[in-house]
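Hello K.,

You asked for the raw outputs rather than the summary table, so here they are, unedited. I folded two proteins back to back in the same session to keep the settings identical. This is the first:
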Amino acid sequence: MDKGYEKERFEGLKIKASVAQRFRRYCGKISKSQSMTLLVMIEFFEDNGISPNESMGPHIQTLEILIKKRINGVIAILKDIEKSQTKPTVAMMQSLFEEAEPKNKPLILEKKKTDDSQPKYRERNPSNL
Protein backbone atom coordinates (compact mmCIF):
# COMPACT_ATOMS: atom_id res chain seq x y z
CA MET A 1 0.00 0.00 0.00
CA ASP A 2 1.07 3.57 -0.55
CA LYS A 3 2.31 5.31 2.60
CA GLY A 4 0.04 8.13 3.69
CA TYR A 5 -2.74 7.14 1.30
CA GLU A 6 -3.95 3.88 2.90
CA LYS A 7 -7.41 5.19 3.88
CA GLU A 8 -8.23 6.86 0.58
CA ARG A 9 -10.57 5.15 -1.83
CA PHE A 10 -9.74 4.38 -5.44
CA GLU A 11 -11.18 6.25 -8.42
CA GLY A 12 -11.44 5.08 -11.97
CA LEU A 13 -9.98 6.98 -14.91
CA LYS A 14 -10.94 6.44 -18.49
CA ILE A 15 -7.83 6.02 -20.60
CA LYS A 16 -7.11 4.07 -23.74
CA ALA A 17 -5.97 0.46 -23.37
CA SER A 18 -2.61 1.03 -25.10
CA VAL A 19 -1.85 4.02 -22.85
CA ALA A 20 -2.81 1.98 -19.75
CA GLN A 21 -0.45 -0.84 -20.76
CA ARG A 22 2.39 1.57 -21.38
CA PHE A 23 1.73 3.32 -18.05
CA ARG A 24 1.72 -0.01 -16.17
CA ARG A 25 5.08 -0.98 -17.75
CA TYR A 26 6.52 2.39 -16.73
CA CYS A 27 5.23 1.92 -13.15
CA GLY A 28 6.94 -1.46 -13.04
CA LYS A 29 10.24 0.07 -14.20
CA ILE A 30 10.32 2.65 -11.43
CA SER A 31 8.89 0.18 -8.86
CA LYS A 32 5.95 2.29 -7.71
CA SER A 33 2.22 1.81 -7.70
CA GLN A 34 0.17 3.42 -10.44
CA SER A 35 -1.17 6.04 -8.02
CA MET A 36 2.27 6.97 -6.71
CA THR A 37 3.76 7.10 -10.22
CA LEU A 38 1.04 9.47 -11.39
CA LEU A 39 1.47 11.61 -8.25
CA VAL A 40 5.25 11.84 -8.73
CA MET A 41 4.78 12.86 -12.37
CA ILE A 42 2.28 15.59 -11.48
CA GLU A 43 4.53 16.94 -8.71
CA PHE A 44 7.50 16.99 -11.09
CA PHE A 45 5.64 19.09 -13.65
CA GLU A 46 4.26 21.46 -11.01
CA ASP A 47 7.56 21.90 -9.12
CA ASN A 48 9.58 22.62 -12.26
CA GLY A 49 6.94 24.75 -13.95
CA ILE A 50 7.01 22.58 -17.04
CA SER A 51 4.09 21.82 -19.26
CA PRO A 52 4.02 18.35 -20.86
CA ASN A 53 3.13 20.06 -24.13
CA GLU A 54 6.33 22.15 -24.17
CA SER A 55 9.60 20.95 -25.60
CA MET A 56 12.46 21.05 -23.10
CA GLY A 57 15.15 21.28 -25.79
CA PRO A 58 15.32 25.07 -26.20
CA HIS A 59 15.08 25.63 -22.45
CA ILE A 60 17.99 23.35 -21.69
CA GLN A 61 20.08 24.82 -24.51
CA THR A 62 19.36 28.35 -23.29
CA LEU A 63 20.43 27.44 -19.76
CA GLU A 64 23.58 25.80 -21.10
CA ILE A 65 24.51 28.93 -23.07
CA LEU A 66 23.93 31.15 -20.03
CA ILE A 67 26.05 28.90 -17.82
CA LYS A 68 28.88 28.87 -20.38
CA LYS A 69 28.79 32.69 -20.59
CA ARG A 70 28.97 33.00 -16.82
CA ILE A 71 31.83 30.51 -16.61
CA ASN A 72 33.70 32.45 -19.30
CA GLY A 73 33.09 35.63 -17.28
CA VAL A 74 34.52 34.02 -14.15
CA ILE A 75 37.55 32.81 -16.10
CA ALA A 76 38.12 36.34 -17.42
CA ILE A 77 37.93 37.75 -13.88
CA LEU A 78 40.42 35.17 -12.58
CA LYS A 79 42.85 35.89 -15.43
CA ASP A 80 42.62 39.62 -14.69
CA ILE A 81 43.27 39.03 -11.00
CA GLU A 82 46.26 36.86 -11.87
CA LYS A 83 47.67 39.43 -14.28
CA SER A 84 47.10 42.53 -12.15
CA GLN A 85 47.60 41.19 -8.63
CA THR A 86 49.20 37.79 -8.35
CA LYS A 87 52.07 38.06 -10.83
CA PRO A 88 53.30 41.49 -9.62
CA THR A 89 53.16 40.32 -6.01
CA VAL A 90 55.13 37.17 -6.82
CA ALA A 91 57.73 39.22 -8.69
CA MET A 92 58.12 41.59 -5.73
CA MET A 93 58.46 38.69 -3.30
CA GLN A 94 61.09 37.00 -5.47
CA SER A 95 63.11 40.20 -5.74
CA LEU A 96 62.98 40.63 -1.95
CA PHE A 97 64.17 37.09 -1.35
CA GLU A 98 66.97 37.39 -3.90
CA GLU A 99 68.32 40.50 -2.16
CA ALA A 100 67.90 39.01 1.29
CA GLU A 101 70.12 35.99 0.62
CA PRO A 102 73.31 36.25 2.69
CA LYS A 103 76.58 36.39 0.80
CA ASN A 104 78.92 33.47 1.35
CA LYS A 105 81.60 34.76 3.69
CA PRO A 106 84.32 32.48 4.94
CA LEU A 107 84.08 31.48 8.57
CA ILE A 108 86.47 33.13 11.03
CA LEU A 109 87.87 29.81 12.22
CA GLU A 110 88.56 28.62 8.72
CA LYS A 111 92.26 28.50 7.83
CA LYS A 112 93.30 29.64 4.43
CA LYS A 113 95.75 27.52 2.52
CA THR A 114 98.62 29.32 0.94
CA ASP A 115 100.92 28.31 -1.87
CA ASP A 116 103.92 28.51 0.49
CA SER A 117 102.85 25.46 2.32
CA GLN A 118 105.08 22.67 1.02
CA PRO A 119 105.07 19.22 2.43
CA LYS A 120 107.87 18.81 4.97
CA TYR A 121 108.82 15.46 3.66
CA ARG A 122 110.13 14.59 0.29
CA GLU A 123 108.40 11.98 -1.73
CA ARG A 124 110.58 9.15 -2.79
CA ASN A 125 110.63 8.29 -6.34
CA PRO A 126 111.16 4.56 -6.91
CA SER A 127 113.12 5.27 -10.09
CA ASN A 128 115.77 7.19 -8.13
CA LEU A 129 116.73 4.24 -5.97
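The second followed immediately with the same parameters:
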Amino acid sequence: MTAPVLGKSYDRPASLDSPRAPRRVSGNNFEKYAWLFMRFSGLLLIVLVFGHMTIMLMLDGGVKRINFGFVAGRWASPFWQFWDLTMLWLAQLHGGNGLRTVIDDYARKDQTRFWLKALLAVAMILIMGVGSYVIFTFDPNIS
Protein backbone atom coordinates (compact mmCIF):
# COMPACT_ATOMS: atom_id res chain seq x y z
CA MET A 1 0.00 0.00 0.00
CA THR A 2 1.28 3.44 -0.79
CA ALA A 3 0.52 6.72 0.87
CA PRO A 4 1.12 10.18 -0.61
CA VAL A 5 3.75 12.42 0.97
CA LEU A 6 4.12 15.83 -0.64
CA GLY A 7 3.10 14.44 -3.99
CA LYS A 8 5.30 11.34 -3.71
CA SER A 9 4.39 7.82 -2.75
CA TYR A 10 6.36 5.25 -0.81
CA ASP A 11 5.89 1.73 0.46
CA ARG A 12 4.72 1.52 4.05
CA PRO A 13 5.48 -1.37 6.34
CA ALA A 14 2.45 -3.58 6.93
CA SER A 15 2.71 -2.98 10.69
CA LEU A 16 1.87 0.70 10.17
CA ASP A 17 -1.24 -0.13 8.16
CA SER A 18 -2.77 -2.36 10.83
CA PRO A 19 -1.39 -1.62 14.28
CA ARG A 20 -3.35 -4.52 15.77
CA ALA A 21 -1.74 -7.05 13.47
CA PRO A 22 -0.09 -9.85 15.40
CA ARG A 23 3.57 -9.30 16.07
CA ARG A 24 6.17 -11.71 14.92
CA VAL A 25 6.81 -14.15 17.75
CA SER A 26 10.33 -15.40 18.11
CA GLY A 27 11.25 -18.61 19.87
CA ASN A 28 13.92 -16.87 21.98
CA ASN A 29 12.40 -15.20 25.04
CA PHE A 30 15.73 -14.71 26.83
CA GLU A 31 15.58 -10.90 26.74
CA LYS A 32 12.02 -10.87 28.10
CA TYR A 33 13.01 -13.12 31.01
CA ALA A 34 16.20 -11.12 31.60
CA TRP A 35 14.08 -7.94 31.77
CA LEU A 36 11.64 -9.57 34.21
CA PHE A 37 14.54 -10.90 36.31
CA MET A 38 15.96 -7.39 36.61
CA ARG A 39 12.66 -6.05 37.96
CA PHE A 40 12.00 -8.83 40.48
CA SER A 41 15.61 -9.23 41.62
CA GLY A 42 15.83 -5.46 42.08
CA LEU A 43 12.80 -5.47 44.37
CA LEU A 44 14.12 -8.40 46.38
CA LEU A 45 17.57 -6.81 46.59
CA ILE A 46 16.04 -3.66 48.07
CA VAL A 47 14.56 -5.73 50.90
CA LEU A 48 17.72 -7.79 51.42
CA VAL A 49 20.15 -4.86 51.32
CA PHE A 50 18.12 -2.51 53.50
CA GLY A 51 17.55 -5.34 55.98
CA HIS A 52 21.29 -6.06 55.98
CA MET A 53 22.18 -2.39 56.44
CA THR A 54 19.63 -1.92 59.22
CA ILE A 55 20.90 -4.92 61.16
CA MET A 56 24.59 -4.28 60.59
CA LEU A 57 24.73 -0.50 60.92
CA MET A 58 21.84 0.69 63.04
CA LEU A 59 20.76 -1.89 65.62
CA ASP A 60 22.52 -2.77 68.89
CA GLY A 61 25.38 -0.29 68.74
CA GLY A 62 25.85 -0.16 64.99
CA VAL A 63 29.23 -0.54 63.33
CA LYS A 64 31.17 -0.63 66.61
CA ARG A 65 29.96 -4.16 67.38
CA ILE A 66 30.92 -5.69 64.02
CA ASN A 67 33.97 -7.91 64.43
CA PHE A 68 35.02 -11.49 63.82
CA GLY A 69 32.86 -12.77 66.70
CA PHE A 70 29.78 -10.98 65.39
CA VAL A 71 30.20 -12.51 61.92
CA ALA A 72 30.90 -15.94 63.44
CA GLY A 73 27.73 -15.74 65.50
CA ARG A 74 25.69 -14.52 62.57
CA TRP A 75 26.90 -17.21 60.16
CA ALA A 76 26.30 -19.91 62.76
CA SER A 77 22.63 -19.58 61.80
CA PRO A 78 21.48 -21.13 58.49
CA PHE A 79 18.98 -18.26 58.16
CA TRP A 80 21.74 -15.63 57.97
CA GLN A 81 23.85 -17.82 55.71
CA PHE A 82 20.89 -18.09 53.32
CA TRP A 83 20.20 -14.33 53.62
CA ASP A 84 23.79 -13.39 52.74
CA LEU A 85 24.07 -16.04 50.04
CA THR A 86 20.84 -14.85 48.40
CA MET A 87 22.03 -11.26 48.55
CA LEU A 88 25.40 -12.22 47.02
CA TRP A 89 23.92 -14.28 44.18
CA LEU A 90 21.15 -11.82 43.34
CA ALA A 91 23.56 -8.87 43.37
CA GLN A 92 25.98 -10.68 41.06
CA LEU A 93 23.31 -11.88 38.65
CA HIS A 94 21.48 -8.54 38.66
CA GLY A 95 24.67 -6.54 38.10
CA GLY A 96 25.98 -9.02 35.54
CA ASN A 97 22.75 -8.88 33.58
CA GLY A 98 22.89 -5.10 33.58
CA LEU A 99 26.52 -5.11 32.44
CA ARG A 100 25.64 -7.65 29.71
CA THR A 101 23.10 -5.15 28.41
CA VAL A 102 25.70 -2.37 28.47
CA ILE A 103 28.14 -4.59 26.56
CA ASP A 104 25.45 -5.31 23.96
CA ASP A 105 24.74 -1.58 23.62
CA TYR A 106 28.32 -0.32 23.32
CA ALA A 107 30.57 -3.09 21.99
CA ARG A 108 30.65 -2.61 18.25
CA LYS A 109 32.42 -5.75 17.08
CA ASP A 110 30.96 -9.22 17.57
CA GLN A 111 34.33 -10.56 18.69
CA THR A 112 34.75 -7.79 21.28
CA ARG A 113 31.21 -8.40 22.53
CA PHE A 114 31.91 -12.14 22.83
CA TRP A 115 35.13 -11.72 24.83
CA LEU A 116 33.68 -9.07 27.13
CA LYS A 117 30.70 -11.30 27.89
CA ALA A 118 33.01 -14.28 28.43
CA LEU A 119 35.15 -12.23 30.84
CA LEU A 120 32.00 -11.06 32.62
CA ALA A 121 30.72 -14.64 32.98
CA VAL A 122 34.05 -15.86 34.36
CA ALA A 123 34.20 -12.98 36.85
CA MET A 124 30.63 -13.57 38.00
CA ILE A 125 31.15 -17.32 38.45
CA LEU A 126 34.41 -16.74 40.31
CA ILE A 127 32.92 -14.18 42.70
CA MET A 128 29.78 -16.24 43.36
CA GLY A 129 31.87 -19.37 43.86
CA VAL A 130 34.36 -17.82 46.26
CA GLY A 131 31.61 -15.98 48.16
CA SER A 132 29.51 -19.14 48.50
CA TYR A 133 32.59 -21.09 49.62
CA VAL A 134 33.36 -18.52 52.32
CA ILE A 135 29.78 -18.43 53.60
CA PHE A 136 29.44 -22.21 53.84
CA THR A 137 32.93 -23.09 55.09
CA PHE A 138 33.46 -20.21 57.53
CA ASP A 139 35.09 -21.61 60.65
CA PRO A 140 34.80 -19.45 63.77
CA ASN A 141 37.46 -21.55 65.50
CA ILE A 142 40.69 -20.29 64.01
CA SER A 143 43.67 -22.06 65.51
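The chain has one domain: 29-137.

Happy to rerun anything if the numbers look odd on your end.

Regards,
P.
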